[in-house]
Amino acid sequence: MSAPLLQVSDLRVSYAAGGSAVPALRGVSLSVAPGEVVAVVGESGSGKSTLAHAVVGLLPGTGRIDGGRITLDGPDGNQELAGMTERALRTVRGRRIGLVPQDPGIALNPVQKVGEQVAESLRVHGIADRRSARLAAVELLDEAGLPDAAARAGQYPHELSGGMRQRVLIAIGIAARPQLLIADEPTSALDATVQRHILDHLEGLVRASGTAVLLITHDLGVAADRADRLVVMQGGRIVEEGPVREVLSAPRDAYTRRLLESAPGLAPVAPAAAAPAAGAPPLVEVRDLVKEFPLGRERLRAVDGVSFTIARGETLALVGESGSGKSTTARLLLRLADPTSGTVTFDGTDITRARGRAWRELRRRAQLVYQNPYASLDPRFRIADVIAEPLRAFRVGDARSQRARAAELLDRVALPASTLSRRPAELSGGQRQRVAIARALALSPDLVVCDEPVSALDVSVQAQVLDLLVDLQADAGLSYLFISHDLAVVRRIAHRVGVLRHGRLLELAPTAQLFAAPAHDYTRELLAAIAGQRTGALEESA
Questions:
Q1: Residues linked to residue 541 through DSSP beta bridges, in sequence order
Q2: Which of 82-86, 118-122, 276-280, 393-397 has the lowest mean pLDDT?
Q3: In this structure, are residues 200 and 192 in contact, taking their beta carbons and an 8 Å threshold?
Q4: Is 366 part of any domain?
Q5: Residues 487 and 515 occupy one common structural domain
Q6: Helices in 238-325 by DSSP H: which ranges?
Q7: Pairing of β 6-17 and β 63-72
Q8: Rounded to an integer, what distance in angstroms lies between the CA atom of residue 308 and that of residue 288?
Q9: Confidence check: pLDDT of 206 > 80
Q10: CA gyration radius for the chain?
Q11: Residue 387 CB: number of other CB atoms within 10 A?
Q12: 50 vs 125: CA distance, rounded Å
């Protein structure tokens, strides 16, 4: 094996909190060789992202390196990155070490077109002048899998879907052709086919140029399929490492075994709530829904003639790639946006025409759980106020009864009462998502729209949240519209599945039927992609 490109030795990192230091990394040591892909896996709080940020010199203001070494091999010998000045790090960051961060909502400039942001990374490192950088930016966006890259380059981040924004970050990360690419959950928000495209590209980059990849992920399927070595972290320590097949086929540590048991597969898991009886009037009826957006001199049809129903007590899942129209359809159903044409009928009332008191009552009965609970929960509020916010908005009860309702809902989502006095930043990702679900239930709705509610969560937390949603449906008769790009997750929770592509509903069928005998070639492609990443690699390793 060649000499390591990156060597981390006994690295210790802590964060300042309330006058004391909270350890985040406790003596971490690992290496990455040229052309090697090393995957670091573990749950939220294990130290994965802290490790990545320490290597590239992007720890937040409260973080500090307390000890250890981070060395990067180069033509002039090893560079010591720990303790390097910010000015010196700028000659390394981006040029020799590329970073693909997890959250494009934070990493991208909201007031700068995405093509300009990619071009800027080329100009900063002296790779291209202004004119050639613009052309190269389009090529990089296309290489990263962004559809219609030339047109998208002229758009702002908020005009792109979450998956598209993530691909912009990937284009920026690979722009300077770095020796080491740190990919921090680069595909957690992407559908299976785009995951495969992106990961195929990263793999090709390794083969062609000898670029090393430090892959931070909670997806064991991705790690098993793409990495040469696996590093398992828990509580700021490495608990197990070794060749991927060796670790997955014969894990030595109990924590690794628990992660493997929690990984979602494609084996069917029937929802706890029974399928609704046929013939009953639907709670929701969507007919010929169309939504167009201006795109330069043309109009983009994001939703194109979509029709479906949702029965009382049913979970309907909509799946498809980023930009397929899933989230736009959900927004139209909740009338967070107005359709260009078509109708949405809720419990017999056309909500596209509802106004005043009738519309306010319908809004109370349909609630939303967002993909990113950290962004959707007000960081200034304590959890008691977060959950009670809908009650205050609809003037339900007084302050005392609202707090009691918040405590009751926390209990329903399996969080302790002590959580009421905490703020969102003090909770883990899974805990924040449980709070988001509790808030959505505050007004006892009939319909809950779940927009990618578990895509950013660790596999064990995913399973807990999905089980919670199923139990709540069984107890309260809730209906769900479940938006997801993950077919393994969908199979676990949905009664029926609709497949969207380019705004069109390609097929809609009971879950078991769609998985056993998909009618459309695109559905078969989705199933093949996720089977290869989720189960094939894991079974092969075993």
A1: none
A2: 276-280
A3: no
A4: yes
A5: yes
A6: 244-249, 254-262
A7: antiparallel
A8: 9
A9: no
A10: 24
A11: 30
A12: 26
- Which of 132, 108, 114 lies closest to 122 in space, CA to CA? 132
What are the pLDDT digits (tens) for 412-423? 888 888 889 888
Euclidean distance between CA atoms 216 and 294, whole angstroms:
37
Looking at residue 19, the DSSP 8-state letter turns out to be T
Tracing tokens 């109370």 back to the chain, one arrives at: 364
Look at residue 436 and tell me if it is in a domain. Answer: no
Question: Which of 218, 12, 190, 182 lies closest to 98, judged by CA?
Answer: 182
115, part of any domain: yes
Q: What's the half-sphere exposure (Cβ side, CA atoms, 13 Å) at 152?
A: 24
Q: CB–CB of 437/423 below 8 Å?
A: no
Give me the sheet containing 20-32, strands edge to edge. 20-32, 6-17, 63-72, 79-80
Which helix (H) or strand (E) element contains residue 292? Answer: strand 284-295
Quick one: 327 and 372 in the same domain? yes
**pLDDT tens digits, one per residue of 64-122:** 999 999 999 876 668 899 989 988 898 899 889 999 887 777 789 999 999 999 999 99
| Euclidean distance between CA atoms 383 and 434, whole angstroms | 11
Closest CA to 392 of 406, 410, 375: 406
**Residues 469, 450: contact at Cβ < 8 Å?**
yes
Q: Are strands 180-184 and 20-32 parallel, antiparallel or unpaired?
A: unpaired
For 427, residues 6+ apart whose C-beta sits below 8 A from its C-beta are 383, 419, 435
CB atoms within 10 A of CB 336: 12
| 499 within some domain | yes
The candidate with the shortest Cα–Cα distance to 238, out of 50, 82, 21, 61, is: 50
Range of the domain at 108: 103-177
